[in-house]
What does this fold into?
Amino acid sequence: MALKISSGTEVAETAAETPAASGVVSVKDRYDIKLDQPLPEYDNAPAVAYRAVPVRDSNRAMYALVCDPKVPPRLEMVPTLHRLDHTAMVNVIDWDVVDWPLEGRRCPVLILPRPGGKKVFSGPKDERAPFSEDYVTRNFILPAVEILREMHNVGETHRALRPDNIYFGGDDEKTLVIGECFSAQPAVTQPAVLESLESCLSAPGGRGEGLAANDLYSLGVCILSLLIGKYPCSAMTDEEVVAQKLAIGSYTTVTQNYRVSLTIMEVLRGLLSDDISDRWSIEDLALWLNGRRLSPKQPPLPVKATRPMQVGGKGYVTARELANGMARNWEESGALVMEGALDGWLRRSLGDESRTEAMSQAKLLGGQDEPDRALARAIIALDPEGPIRLRGLASTIGGMGTFGAMYNEDEAAKKLIADAIQMSLPSFWMEQQVTVRPEMSHGVARLDRMRATLMRPGIGYGLERVLYELNPDTPCKSPLFERDYVATLDHLLPAMERATAAREGDLKRLIDRDIAAYIGAHYRRSVSGDLADIETDDAGLAATAQVRMLAMLQDSLARGKAFPSLCKAAAKLLDPAVRRFHSHSTRKRVRQMMQKAEREGRLQHLVTIVTNPVEIDQDEKGYLRATNDFTRSAVETIKVRNHIKNQGKIAAEVGGQFSSGLAGMLAALICAIAAIVRLA
It folds into this structure.
């Protein structure tokens, strides 16, 4: 299931083999997945299919798709499309995250209705008898128009239209059903022949949600496949398909010498146009179905240079081909930009002044000290309609989020996203566009806003926050959830409960950078205050802020659920907050209350105990009284000690005074006696 970031075109073609097993996995107590009944005919790589049985209606034919946790499914779109009820499309009935014994971890699972028949094509190399134009029009084009119109009207795209994702509606093969589009990121499993030029120049993970025009392009290729009984360009590799599209255009590459009627040729020419402004819309296709004949424009061939530019041992004669070649030979291509050879080729051999001027702008802010930025901008200047390319990164404007989701465990890939945003490559890409559409402005503005988030160093921000903001389907990647799958914010606390229950030893913190960023990106209220407190040097305040954030989630998202293991871990984490109480008896009482709160499983109770203003005030007052009493006692003690220390001196002084007085009294007495004697 691994994706190679270097080539940007390789994805798994088949579902991974899983060992045989027996038993049942329950989904929400409503569906039972039979582990011993795999359904490989419904696999949609990298997801694998098993029989699913509804608890209340065992006769209803369903199947479960177990998704690869490393390729996040498109769960965000499930509620939106759940209301789409069309018999010609496989839609999601329900989903959940379950313990999957075959992988030894938790995995997202989709529950879907079985189409009724097998796949029309088992894979890209499969061939079958061609269908008639009438059959294809009635059973595929017509329902596809209805389905895509509904999807596009609610702002969603299918992005998984391909011949081996089309099923027969039954064993009689009289109808066709379009397969699901939820089990993987958009277009990640699409062969290059199914994708428009700007999309297949991107890495599979960087194609993004795309536009309605992307679905219509794929629809055109599917129509041709059904009519000829095989994949177009099935003998070519993805690289060869891309090169051919760049050289002679998509329509010519895909249709080759296949024989179709002029009526169908009109449809294919309209749907396979490389110029998105000329590509047919859903309404154009609906008009064609109603009998109106249109005249698609013949796309002009790209301007060719009088002599080729050599890169990586190959010669390129068009600007787009050269841009693709430079992106694939990054180290060698830097010299072409910085030494000026490219400018001369554009001016003298290609004769394209607009590209020459764009190249000058590209080098203006990307000089010798920033060779990667200069080369990335130069590639945009050569091919402004193509994706943003920076070393291993090749992504459309809307594909940065899906690229991050696909390669979230690859630090080099994540750094490329950060570099592209910091280098302002999306803004430069926008400057080079001849025609600006609203979705372009929205996508570029969103990426520009991410620059400020990216530059914030604190917990809850940085690249982690950017990746979660750009793609809501990205699960929380905290190391705490290594064997778990946190698909939504609702899954966060239950996952923490499982992790703390299974963990040996105390946690140093409950909220790391990933968890903080995930909460910040998904929670509807601001948590910036608590995030600031988490990073304070006060251990008690930092611990309290962490537990307070989790308590806030429990109160708003899981009020009726108890999390005793998480509370136990939180109570241990709050020990510095307990130690802030001065009274030993208060500490003992607080800890007893916390033990009771642990068993109740309410995080807010723990926070209330350690932040109780009455308890804190009484403890402070008691501490002040004790301090004052101690001070007075200390002063008295010092006085006594000083008194004892000076006892000899005091005795000498008092004794001297007493002796002097006594001597005076004796002298007076003697004098009196003498006087009496004399008179006698």
In short: Confidence is low (pLDDT under 50) at residues 1-16. Residues 41 and 350 are 51 Å apart (CA to CA). The first strand starts at residue 24 and ends at 27. The radius of gyration is 38 Å.
